[in-house]
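Exam revision sheet. Question 4 asks you to relate a sequence to its structure. Input first:
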Amino acid sequence: MSLSVQIFELPPIGTQCYVVSHPDSLELAVFDAPLNAWPTVEAIAAKSGLKIGGLYFTHGHWDHTLDGQKFNDAGVPAFAHAEDRLFFETPEVMATYSIPGMAMPPVKIESWLEHGQRIKIIGREVEVRHVPGHSPGSVLFWFVDDKVAISGDALFYRSIGRTDFPGCSFEQLSNSIKNHIYTLPDDTVVYPGHGPETSVGDEANGNPFVLR
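Answer key, structure tokens:
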């Protein structure tokens, strides 16, 4: 029985929230929390009868965290990498590269994730891969047995995440992609933070910014 991945492109800049479930689990998992993620996910949970088991952040940039506090308020545990702690705890540091006047509430992280850590999400084995470069704490979540990876803004279809923000580095991101994304099986489906899905093999052989 296969993993279900629902994709929601949300405001204000088309950031994607992923709601992942599996027939064998009574929970669903949420990846990233753009604006309006909470009412979107709450409606899915109510309709399906599934519990929201956790909120998993690919990184701490403001457009991925705007509804995070609402998940906190509902008692949903949140997880992220500690290298982005500053963004979650004091999001105002991102004011110079966000939308002027945009409210950016802090997000409480239940537990900080580490590179190489194997965790259970909706009963599936998931490996956390630290892929810094777009942000210091960017991570990819690899569903080991399902051939699915949620990459955040590290890798897009025929593109990569921006490296002109504070804490960014093209060299670091390129190394992250080559060492921790392109080393996944070629038929792994990649769900990015913006834009259409792709695969490891397609990007490793055709991405104009970083090739294997």
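Marking note for examiners. The mean pLDDT is 97.
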